[in-house]
Amino acid sequence: MSVGVEHHPNRHREPARRLERPDAFGLLARFLHAATVVVRNAIVGVVWHDGVMVASAIAFSMIFALFPFMIFLVALGALVGGPQLGDYVSREALGAFPEHMVRTIQPELQRIFATPNKTSLLSFGLAVTLISITGCVEAVRDGLNRAYRCAEDRGPIRRYGSDLLFVFIGMFFVLAMASLGIVVPVWLRYLEASVLDVHFELGLLRIAREALIVIIMGVTLALVHLVLPARKRRVKSVATGALVTLVGWWICGRLFGMYLSQIANYSATYAGLGGTVALMFFLYIQALIFIFGAELNRSISEFHGRRDLCRKQS
């Protein structure tokens, strides 16, 4: 009588496979692949959506609007807070440009500001600013619509109304930051005179002021991406492009300043127009970085399968 062999159901069962988690190298490889695809798509979008041409239009519009805007802003600051606030506004507004170009622009502005009739400067600056700056905002709007592949669905009255709103909001923020630039140093000198050992706190206050400027610029950029183009307003979908634009502007400002001071010689080619041409080229590069930021937002959304950013597709 043969004895049957007892079979245990679990004896020959294959061990359960572990869920393999990707290692750090695999995660890095995936991230680099995704970043390469997104950046390549954004660069191709800049070319195919006429970003180079739109950046030229934005740079020209900014040159056209810069001096009237500065005249109005400084005249308004001098009217509201006296000559000290007006001078500080001009220095703060020019702080975003490389030092070589500031030395070219500032004497021309001071020559204009030397006129004793501030009211005429205020009225002239406002009139010309409203005409020129709306063209600049419209150029930015067109570049964003092209980058996001959106078709404009708003009428001219609504568009130009939002343009003017952006202008006045920008003026308010510049004047507010300039006022802080005057009030805070006075307060710091009072603290230094009345309180001992406050150097550490004073350093933190100065760092906080610079951080506040960066935050305001970032929020303004995000609002531009959300409000100007004919797209759906999703803050998450514009954060990356706004951050990349801020970093790119900062790097470009430093590198372009070094380029002007050590390599470039625009005066030899453009004679008396060298400073203006250098300023236009700088604004052109900054506008190109801005357009790239918008294309990057679109490319990231498409990479994740979201193609419904626009209210009306172009």
Mean pLDDT: 75
What coarse outline follows from CA principal-axis ratios? globular
Measured distance between first and last alpha carbons: 86 Å
Proportion of β residues? Answer: under 5%
What number of domains? 1
- List how many beta strands DSSP finds: 0
Protein name: YihY/virulence factor BrkB family protein
Membrane topology: Multi-pass membrane protein
Organism: Propylenella binzhouense
InterPro entries: Virul_fac_BrkB
Overview of this structure, please?
- It is a multi-pass membrane protein.
- Pfam families: Virul_fac_BrkB (PF03631).
- One of its GO terms (cellular component) is plasma membrane.
- InterPro entries: Virul_fac_BrkB (IPR017039).
- It is found in: Cell membrane.
- The protein starts with 23 loop residues before the first helix and ends in an 11-residue tail after the last helix.
- The mean pLDDT is 75.
- It has nine helices and no strands.
- 77% of the residues lie in helices and 0% in strands.
- The chain has one domain (47-301).
- It has 314 residues and is mainly alpha-helical.
- Helix 4 packs parallel to helix 9 and helix 5 packs antiparallel against helix 6.
